[in-house]
Task: inverse folding
């Protein structure tokens, strides 16, 4: 019996280390899916090289060549649709997506954010955690909804914040956890164990709390 592996498209803007974690997990079959395309909006993004090294089709749609957000999103959507994905993964994709774009892929669009959402949506999360004297910080994988970093959380990982931490040190500690939990959630979606219903995240048909599946 042939098992259909879900088709995954990754969007990335920079180094693509989370993309690499997902690519590696697919290669090891710990994700029951296949990365069929990687798309970036930055011509110099190292994520393109990661895709090439893994023999994954990759392309750049440079947002700077488009007149506005809607025309860029239309071109991006067309490129995604050409790959016929079951799952679309934002892996450090540094673009705010239009409401129409997000609604089109609602329920199969994932993002990872470097904070314990709903704390610290947006940028500079590590510095904000340090400036607020937080004792813990972390990362959240969530479904993408039209509200920026506001989609329901599926899974979080926590790290301690030490007294003498710099934002860079804290970021590197968080990144280790990102590489662990993102492939887990992508696999859950590939196996249809998680779903978005009425803007709530569900795992095995049970609604998840605000912090997602794991709270420890």
Result:
């Amino acid at each position: 019996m042939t098992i259909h592996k879900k088709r995954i498209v990754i969007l990335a803007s920079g180094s693509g280390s989370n993309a690499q974690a997902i690519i590696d997990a697919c290669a090891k079959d710990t994700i029951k899916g296949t990365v069929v395309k990687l798309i970036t909006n930055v011509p110099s993004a190292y994520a393109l090289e990661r895709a090439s090294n893994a023999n994954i089709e990759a392309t750049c749609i440079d947002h700077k060549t488009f007149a506005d957000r809607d025309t860029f999103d239309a071109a991006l959507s067309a490129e995604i649709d050409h790959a016929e994905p079951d799952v679309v993964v934002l892996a450090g994709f540094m673009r705010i997506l239009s409401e129409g774009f997000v609604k089109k892929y609602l329920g199969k669009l994932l993002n990872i954010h470097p904070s314990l959402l709903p704390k610290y949506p947006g940028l500079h999360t590590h510095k904000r955690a340090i400036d607020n004297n937080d004792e813990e910080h972390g990362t959240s994988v969530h479904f993408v909804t039209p509200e920026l970093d506001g989609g329901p959380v599926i899974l979080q990982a926590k790290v301690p914040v030490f007294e003498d931490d710099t934002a860079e040190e804290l970021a590197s500690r968080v990144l280790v956890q990102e590489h662990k939990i993102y492939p887990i959630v992508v696999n859950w979606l590939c196996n249809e164990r998680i779903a978005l219903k009425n803007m709530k995240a569900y795992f095995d048909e049970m609604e998840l709390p605000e912090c997602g599946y794991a709270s420890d």
